[in-house]
Design a protein that fits this description.
The complex is a heterodimer of chains A (310) and B (545).
Chain A (H helix, E strand, L loop, with lengths): L1 H29 L2 H6 L5 H10 L6 H13 L13 H6 L2 H28 L4 H15 L2 H15 L15 H27 L2 H8 L4 H26 L6 H6 L5 H10 L3 H29 L1 H9 L2
Helix pairs in contact in A: 1-14, 6-7, 6-9, 7-9, 8-9, 9-11, 10-11, 11-14, 13-14, 14-15
Chain B lengths: L4 H25 L4 E6 L16 H10 L4 E3 L7 E3 L2 E8 L2 E6 L13 H7 L2 H5 L17 H6 L6 H9 L3 E8 L2 E6 L6 H5 L9 H6 L3 H6 L7 E7 L3 E6 L12 E6 L3 H9 L5 E2 L7 H5 L4 E16 L9 H9 L3 H8 L30 H10 L7 E6 L6 H15 L3 E6 L2 H5 L7 E7 L9 H5 L4 H4 L6 H12 L3 H18 L3 E14 L2 E2 L16 E2 L1
Parallel strand pairs in B: 1-10, 1-11, 13-14, 13-15
Antiparallel strand pairs in B: 2-3, 4-5, 5-7, 6-7, 8-9, 9-10, 11-16, 12-15, 12-16, 17-18
Helix pairs in contact in B: 12-14, 19-20
The chains are: A mainly alpha (310), B alpha+beta (545).
Chain lengths: 310, 545
């Protein structure tokens, strides 16, 4: 198990290093931060001074080695826009993002899983078709369309909720609903198909034939077996908690990671973009690791396969 | 005579009450409204220091916070008016003396004196420690922004901008507590204009000295404007409180919150939902959406900024100036104004603005729309229809892509084969490794003289020549001569000749239309938009019905 954990950790570190390296070169190849930050009308001497001050006039390999060297000491550089440590800028936005993505995750699970189970247990009924129709509508509608629709109804027409900003907890309601709707729809579809597959398995028929109550068959035999694919999707959702609200944060002017990412990319604030990608990659890798461990907990076969080394 | 004790006590009580009551009355009477303004951005550079934030959005933000000795009349045509200086006079060709307004208070309560003005234009605040007054070279500096976060070293762009604004400023000296004298190294009739431009905003010496770092200063600057900074969160919000000791009268708004809402639709929805009182940076195609609702209106105004099409004279198809002239004659500018701007802007008289005053060249126009003339020019230049690339950004300017598509069609009517080449950023636009031909730009004037525009942007030190797109020997001679010429008749003749060269004979660019900015607001608020990004929120221009 230790060997397994160590190998996963090594792969995680490699993934993060790959993300950092890729981001470093792509960002530098795609635009001059001096022009973007100081504007196209800035005097040429200001542009030259800016590049010199930030080492952008150095060969790119020198810039890369310096960046990796500093990163190893925990220094991810300073924002080119305001001089503050990039990692501080990123971390102070995380709570705002989690304030909408965590409740949205609860909404996704709280609505999506029961709806999926319900649809699977009432297969090919009107309720199943309605649930799936809503699910398809939920995940095919782009989040910015849903966001604007909700604002139009609840802010502009009814005047019940604020259209944007983060002045009070009430401001979070529409972003949470927007994020939660699509996720709940996806969750419902995956849960339904996982449950359907399990319900068709011989062991479910055997459990029923043994005389177990239908409720017990579902809760003790079907659900745990349907949990594996569902946990995979939950893993993705947990992985996107930090960076999964880019569009929604922009539409609702919510000051989280997503908006920071958009503005940092637009301004080619290299250190901030790199710190953001590092944090996002770290979070995603940790979520995947958690999913792997959850597999072992949920499925004894996975556990024994790892223990037996095959 | 001794006063009876009771009378004395009563008198003392009355005196105390008379001192206390007005304050209480003011406190009780402070029923001024607070407003929220949704904007696309507060400051691109995340700082509230005009010497770093030389942008349109910065112009708007700084109009609340800080002021210059000479200020533009925001309710007029931006003509210069007394600001923190009550009056000024020319001592000689190189020297201007300013009589400061007395009783002006900074946001920290200090009185503004000559000492603050001298400090504003000092090395510590503006030019950096390595400023070489005798040098003609553009200076520079080894300071780094990292030091600006930890100490008071200036970010490198600050002295660079200062040097551009005041290329030959020798010294600023205090004559007495309320008089300062600006001395230039060379004769310069534009010194008054420069003193009134964005970046020459007067700051409190004590507040700057007390700041722990330059970044801290730039987040919480102390000026003399009608509103003072309470809290600035870059990319999110700026909260301003009324500066009740403001020299121009008590501000009419208790607090102003500027909120960054990047999406246009979200700004509009927020206004319609009653969350915002004003929304800025409205694209013209959204005006009908707002005005359908009787509670709101859109105020638009042209600003001191013209949209241009810029040529690279070194592209094989554009070497012959007649091809570039054909471009200029094949544009129906009024059609663009009418269709894409709903007629809410105008075709200006070339690269100049009326606020130039005596330097404005009356009777000058953009090249006439004349397809036959364009065709004839192309024929004379022996243009065979070879492709001409048009590097384009995705709506960096309002209506940019739509305008480009219209232009390409218009040029094609004349026989020009222009092909749009979409780019992601300015670096790709300027990339000299591949053939450049046509691109977009906009030009402003930071003060009321052609030096601030045609010379600054198309002269030898201007971006177009620095980028290697265009040059003209006569234009360069005129630019240098105009910097030190003080005879206004000669200067105007020079400017006219520059317009002839750059817009007609050897086109460097062609002006398309004047830019405009649109602000939507509650109709029950009486407020007038300025011909600028700056917003006037003093008592003369705000009331709620």
């Amino acid at each position: 198990m230790l060997l397994f954990a160590a190998s996963r950790l090594f792969r995680a570190l490699l993934t993060i290093l790959f993300v950092m390296t890729f981001a470093f070169f792509v960002l530098r190849a795609s635009g001059d931060p001096a022009l973007l930050i100081l504007s196209v009308d800035a005097p040429p001497e200001a542009l030259a001074a800016f590049r010199k001050a930030w080492g952008l006039d150095q060969p790119i390999w020198q810039q890369y080695l310096a960046y990796i060297g500093h990163a190893l000491t925990g220094d991810f550089g300073k924002s080119m826009r305001d001089g503050r440590p990039a990692i501080d800028l990123v971390m102070e936005r995380v709570p705002a993002t989690l304030a909408i993505t965590l409740p949205a995750l609860a909404l996704k699970l709280g609505i999506g899983i029961p709806a999926g189970i319900y649809a699977a247990l009432h297969r090919n009924t009107f309720a199943d078709r309605m649930t799936m129709a809503l699910s398809v509508a939920g995940f095919t509608m782009p989040s910015f369309v849903l966001a604007l629709l909700l604002v139009l109804i609840f802010s502009v027409t009814l005047g019940w909720l604020p259209a944007s900003g983060n002045d009070s907890p009430v401001n979070a309601i529409l972003p949470i609903i927007t994020l939660g709707t699509a996720g709940a729809a996806i969750m419902a579809r995956f849960t339904r198909s996982a449950m359907q597959e399990v319900l068709g398995q011989p062991f479910v028929r055997a459990a029923s034939a043994k005389g177990l109550s239908w409720r017990r068959v579902i809760s003790h035999h079907a659900l745990p077996n349907a949990a594996i694919p569902t946990v995979t999707i939950i893993g993705f959702m947990v992985g996107s908690l930090v960076a999964g609200a880019v569009v929604v944060e922009s539409v609702f002017a919510w000051p989280g990671i997503g908006r920071l990412l958009v503005s940092a990319v637009a301004n080619r604030d290299l250190a901030v973009v790199q710190a953001l990608l590092m944090v996002i990659a770290f979070w995603m890798v940790m979520a995947n690791l958690a999913v792997d461990l959850a597999y072992g907990w949920l499925d004894p076969r996975v556990r024994s396969a790892r223990a037996g080394g095959h | 005579m001794l006063l009876p004790r009771r009378r004395l006590i009563a008198a003392a009580g009355l005196t105390t009450a008379s001192l206390a009551l007005p304050r209480i009355a003011i406190g009780q009477a402070d029923n001024r409204p607070s407003i929220t303004i949704a904007v696309q951005q507060i400051a691109n550079s995340a700082s509230l220091e005009p010497l770093r934030e030389q942008s349109n959005v910065g112009t708007r933000t700084f109009s609340f916070i800080s002021e210059t000795l000479i200020m533009p009349n925001l309710l007029g045509q931006l003509e210069p008016t007394p600001g923190l200086a009550e009056s000024w006079k020319r001592i000689d060709e190189r020297t201007v003396e300013f009589a400061l307004r007395k009783g002006v208070r900074f946001h920290n309560g200090d009185e503004m004196t000559a000492d603050d003005v001298v400090f504003t234009f000092s090395r510590d605040h503006m030019f950096g420690p390595n400023y070489d007054i005798t040098s003609n070279k553009t200076l520079f500096t080894s300071v780094v922004v990292r030091d600006s976060a930890d100490g008071m070293k200036l970010p490198p762009e600050v002295p660079a901008v200062a040097k551009r604004l005041f290329p030959a400023l020798e010294k600023v000296e205090a004559v007495d507590k309320y008089t300062v004298r600006f001395v230039n190294r060379t004769p310069d009739v534009t010194l008054e204009g420069r003193v009134g431009s964005l970046g020459a905003n007067i700051v409190s010496r004590r507040a700057f000295s007390e700041a722990k770092s330059w970044v801290e200063w730039a987040r919480l600057p102390v000026g003399t404007g009608p509103y003072k900074v309470r809290e600035y969160t870059p990319d999110q919000s700026l909260i301003l409180d009324a500066h009740d000791d403001y020299w121009g009268g008590r501000p009419p708004i208790k607090s102003v919150r500027m909120m960054v809402v990047p999406e246009v639709a979200a700004r509009i929805n927020g206004l319609l939902a009653g969350q915002f009182d004003f929304i800025c940076d409205m694209p013209p195609d959204q005006i009908p959406t707002i005005e359908k609702n009787p509670k709101f209106e859109v105020l638009g105004s042209t600003i001191v900024n013209h949209r241009l099409t810029v040529f690279d004279m070194h592209h094989p198809q554009l070497v012959d100036p007649r091809v570039r002239q054909a471009f200029t004659h094949a544009i129906d500018r009024q059609a663009i104004v009418d269709s894409l701007w709903s007629g809410r802007t105008r075709v200006p008289a070339g690269l100049q603005w009326e606020f130039y005053g005596p330097m404005f060249v009356e009777g000058w126009t953009v090249p006439e729309y004349n397809l036959d003339k364009a065709k004839a020019l192309l024929k004379a230049a022996n243009y065979k229809g070879d492709p001409i690339p048009y590097r384009l950004l995705n709506n960096y300017y309002t209506n940019q892509v739509a305008t480009a598509q219209v232009l390409v069609e218009m040029w094609s009517q004349a026989g020009l084969n222009v092909q749009i080449d979409m780019k992601e950023n300015w670096q790709q636009i300027f990339d000299a490794n591949k053939q450049r031909a046509v691109r977009d730009w906009s030009n402003s004037a930071s003060f009321n003289d052609p030096i601030s525009s045609i010379v600054a942007q198309h002269g030898p030190q201007g971006q177009q020549q620095q980028a290697g797109e265009w040059t003209n020997a006569e234009m360069n001679r005129l630019s240098d001569a105009m910097q030190v010429e003080t005879d206004m008749t000669k200067r105007k003749a020079m400017f006219k000749r520059m317009l002839e060269i750059c817009e007609r004979e050897d086109p460097a660019y062609t002006v398309l239309h004047q830019n405009a900015t649109f602000t939507a607001k509650r109709k029950d608020i009486r407020w007038k938009a300025s011909p600028s990004f700056a917003m006037e929120f003093r008592s003369v221009n705000f009331a709620v019905n």
